[in-house]
Design brief:
Blueprint: H1 24-28, E1 32-37, E2 43-49, H2 52-63, H3 70-77, E3 86-89, H4 94-100, H5 104-116, E4 124-126, E5 146-148, E6 156-163, H6 167-175, E7 180-187, E8 194-195
Parallel strand pairs: 2-7, 3-6, 6-7
Antiparallel strand pairs: 1-2, 1-8, 4-5
Bound molecules: zinc ion.
The site of zinc ion has 8 residues, from helix 1.
């Protein structure tokens, strides 16, 4: 028997029995997210649908700064990450990182790296949210922007927490040279793109 803390479900927080980091009830709620194709050609492997316990795990990681919640997510992300040479986390916008004290994609990438042996490369830095009014030739309000600060050797795998519209992943992929794919913890019900 481990310490009391080790025997709590990282998702719902109740005492659990047996192996793994989630209790049986939380594991039953996990629905695979599948593979999606974003407009522009980026292929995304989503560990789970953004619902039930998967949604709770992301919430605990992202808003409660609870890194252990990354472990069950990373275990289901790992198979999708094995097509690249480096994991590139999609950095949280600077202002939000300060507010919540955690960068969820970096936690997920570190956990996937421990499982797969694929190294993490912090190749992207975030911009501030682009708040300029959309105008002729202008960007849309709230469009995320990234800048590459390191060259990626070989194929990359972008790592992010939640896939909603796909705008963030597209912006991140466009900032990188070369080719790759993306792996996310969850995909929203009305997610983008086409199921493969
Ligand atoms: Zn649970």
């Amino acid at each position: 028997m481990g310490t009391f803390g080790e025997m709590l479900c990282v998702c719902c927080g109740v005492a659990r029995a047996g192996r793994g980091t989630c209790c049986h009830g939380c594991r039953l709620e996990l629905v695979p997210g599948g593979e999606l194709w974003l407009a522009g050609g980026l292929i995304v492997h989503a560990a789970f649908r953004h619902d039930g316990s998967a949604r709770r795990l992301v919430h605990r990681l992202k808003y409660e700064a609870f890194p252990a919640a990354a472990l069950p997510l990373a275990a289901a992300m790992a198979p999708g990450a094995c097509h690249g040479s480096v994991l590139v986390p999609v950095p949280r916008v600077i202002a939000r990182h300060w507010k919540h004290g955690i960068d969820p994609a970096r936690e997920l990438a570190a956990a996937v790296s421990r499982l797969t042996g694929i190294p993490v490369l912090g190749a992207l830095v975030p911009g501030w949210w682009h708040a300029a009014r959309a105008g002729p030739g202008g960007k849309h309000r709230g469009e995320p922007r990234f800048r590459a600060i390191r060259a990626v050797p070989g194929r990359w795998v972008l790592i992010d927490d939640v896939l909603t519209t796909g705008t963030t992943l597209r912006a991140a992929s466009q900032a990188l040279e070369g080719t790759g794919r993306a792996v996310v913890a969850t995909v929203a019900q009305a997610g983008p793109g086409r199921r493969r």
